[in-house]
Design a protein that fits this description.
Blueprint (H helix, E strand, L loop, with lengths): L19 H31 L10 H13 L2 H33 L1 H14 L8 H8 L3 H25 L3 H9 L4 H38 L5 H10 L3 H29 L8
Family: Belongs to the binding-protein-dependent transport system permease family.
Keywords: Cell membrane, Membrane, Transmembrane, Transmembrane helix, Transport
Membrane topology: Multi-pass membrane protein
Length: 276
């Protein structure tokens, strides 16, 4: 009697998995490298083009850098950035705090939405710069007028995005919550508000960008400090390089604020679907 003895093959060795961080490190470095390369090419093109024009018409990157150094040394640039940042953050925060509840109430109460809709649809097409003169007359040339204009810029954008989020909530989820005996307040907190978070974050980011557009107009008209005032003062002194410094400072500041907002919301609100 022959016994067929079969032996199972030895299990193949399994290569250890690399941590996720290592796999994502290379694409991340590639993105950073491409961004740095793009900026370097932009500065190179700027430098080449500036050689064909006068410094008054188009200052070179080096001349702009020297102007930035001068403004940093005498404290003008830092004071301007601080003043503009304070106005933007104050008005933007107030607009978000007011805009979110208004959007939630409009989405949950139909008759209130019908009453407020004409005003929102009207004023959202009126640019904030149209109210600069009235803001100065009503609130004075101080900080209140600038903050009010930023608030005006923010509140409608946030309210409309919040309203869109409320209206986009799946009706099946609302009916399921009611069937389980949830009160209107409980439904708002547990169903509507979590579903609206991504829309609120999008509205806040859009409002932040528009706030920078508004602050420059407000500071040019009536301000002794701020990046808008710096740009206007540079025009009076024929310092075109200072204008470029102000523009670059606005762009970098806006990028920094948006990056901070994206990082904080992506970290703290990921469970609500905020991934951008």
């Amino acid at each position: 009697m022959t016994v067929d003895v079969r032996t199972d093959p030895a299990p193949a060795s399994v290569a250890p998995r690399r941590p996720t961080r290592r796999r994502s490190a290379k694409p991340r470095l590639t993105r950073i490298g491409l961004s740095v390369l793009s900026v370097a090419l932009g500065i190179l093109v700027w430098d080449l083009v500036s050689r064909n024009y006068t410094a008054f018409f188009l200052p070179s990157p080096m001349l702009t850098w020297q102007g930035a150094v001068d403004l940093i040394r005498d404290g003008t640039l830092w004071d301007s950035i601080t003043a503009s940042s304070t106005r933007i953050l104050t008005g933007w925060a107030l607009g978000v705090v007011i805009g979110v509840p208004v959007g939630l109430l409009m989405g949950c109460i139909p008759w209130l939405r019908l009453m407020l809709d004409p005003y929102i649809q009207f004023f959202r097409f009126v640019p904030p710069i149209a109210f600069v003169t009235l803001a100065i007359i009503w609130l004075g040339p101080g900080e209140a007028s600038k903050v009010a204009l930023i608030f005006y810029t923010t509140v409608f954008i946030v309210a409309l995005n919040t309203l869109a989020g409320v209206l986009a909530v799946d009706d099946l989820r609302l009916r399921a919550a009611r069937a389980l005996g949830a009160s209107p307040l409980r439904t708002l907190v547990s169903v509507v508000l979590p579903s609206t978070v991504p829309h609120v974050v999008t509205g806040a980011r859009l409002a932040m960008g528009n706030s920078f557009l508004t602050i420059v107009s407000a500071e040019i008209v009536a301000a002794q400090s701020g990046l808008g005032s710096l740009i206007w003062t540079a025009r009076n002194y024929a310092k075109t390089e200072w204008v470029f410094v102000g523009i670059l400072a606005l762009g970098l500041l806006g990028y920094l604020f948006d990056w901070i907002l994206r990082t904080v919301t992506r970290t703290t609100l990921r469970r609500y679907g905020v991934t951008f």
